[in-house]
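Researcher: Please generate the 3D structure of the following complex. Treat every line as part of one assembly.
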Amino acid sequence: NAGVTQTPKFRILKIGQSMTLQCTQDMNHNYMYWYRQDPGMGLKLIYYSVGAGITDKGEVPNGYNVSRSTTEDFPLRLELAAPSQTSVYFCASTQKTNTGELFFGEGSRLTVL
Amino acid sequence: QKEVEQNSGPLSVPEGAIASLNCTYSDRGSQSFFWYRQYSGKSPELIMFIYSNGDKEDGRFTAQLNKASQYVSLLIRDSQPSDSATYLCAAKGGAQKLVFGQGTRLTINP
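Model: Done. Output below.
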């Protein structure tokens, strides 16, 4: 079982470049989330989706965009990368938000120089 | 005010002792609360969830919830070196979003 797959695992960007972090899940989960984790810190919610075609902002959405055209995929777009976006990004999914069991990808480590 | 707040630690506990981790939340509409464990360089994994006032026990772990005080805690009994990790508290707010605290780094000393 693949679960939640994130690509790429590592990426270095120059200031002002753009890129997309890919996230796909094969569990037919409706709910999907993007978090970022700065060194020594907790997870901050960037965007989330409750189903295909529906997305909403989290705590720190500025500088990011998302789309959810299918149940499986939830890409995160970074426009005009800034050093403040250097972080580890986690994608997660769940079918049951009441139990809180998020299935996480392995994370994508992004460095902006 | 952050939605979910934790003492960032680090918290150091001798092996075999009880580790106590605390969390407060600001949204009174939050209904469910979760504790995740994260080893260094790894993804978080769910330990427990709780949504009723009182205690919930699972093996060496006990989660406690006090909605009136907006307080959640996690007790780890008979702490083991393998419990050394960062512990993340999370709350489910409105519209299905799950918000995390900043995490508490726990070290169990043999």
